[in-house]
Amino acid sequence: MNRLPGLFKKKKMGESDIVPITNNMNNFQAIPRAQEFNNPGIAIRCVALGICQAGIVRGFMDSKEAAKQAKAIIKHCDWRGDLGGVLGPSLFECNGDPIKYFNESQLAATRIDSALGGQPAKLYEAIESFESLVPTNFVPAQDQLPRIKPVVYKGKSAAYNRALVFDCEKANIVKIHEDLANVRALASYNFEIASTQIVLAHNLYLQNRKGEGSLFIYGKKFTEKEKKDLDKRIGLDQDGNPSQIFTTGYPYPESEFTNCPVTQIDVEAGDYVVFRADFPHKVATVCKPTKGYRVSWNGFFTLLYGTANELVYWT
Ligand SMILES: O=C(O)CCC(=O)C(=O)O
Q1: Distance from residue 195's CA to the centre of ligand 1 (Å)
Q2: 107 lies in which domain range?
Q3: Is there a contact between 8 and 145 (Cβ–Cβ < 8 Å)?
Q4: pTM of this prediction?
Q5: pLDDT band per the 50, 70, 90 thresholds, residue 134
């Protein structure tokens, strides 16, 4: 009997709330779209199970530590034209080249160590808290206990040290996109993952004002055929390049989401959010912008063998 522990801040969830993941994948009208938790492990598990679209842990990191990490990241990141900056690689942005990815990961680990005097503990705590999850009233067989590990390529584990620095003066910080292409890149380079249409992103926010860089998640998911049709229909994207939503997941036109349910999550320094990144989402500023940067740690999860008990992570 699979029961989730009663650690929720707002509402205890019982057995009847737990629905098989396959039934819930595309149906977010029927379930809560964002839920607050006091433990990242449970938030990750509930989002992976399809119980909610996003899980939020407010104040996961204390604001002094968050400010210290943000300052170090801003000092050590690579600046990029209009985006802001990044520290550490993403497999997807390395064009699916695992060797480049691992080399850059190594470099990023060294820079983070020197900037912070060691790896940022809280990021790993979010992952470890999933692993240490033993739901109450639940006596599982050993193989049902939650398991989580980095994706592995030729014996090398994915790194976990990517930070994003966004320019807060822009209203639209990251256009509408989804991150399934990221999972396809892993699969095409023979990382060990399940064949799945599910990807979770998680972010630990280190610096921003409320309303600067709110996260918007849409309740509408496109099939592969719909994405290909969309590319054909759009032709050229907003920047004059051939539309590549099917290949990259980026950028969906806002006009596709008229009257679509949307969840807005206003984040603040210290907050942790995990969400279903296979659903289109964007980052946008909803208050009067000020000069400054929004800084966060960022990473992804997917299913290892197709169950929400077994996850792999990477950046
Ligand atoms: O920074 C955020 O709030 C979300 C970033 C994002 O688009 C992602 O994690 O896929």
Answers
A1: 23
A2: 34-314
A3: no
A4: 0.88
A5: low
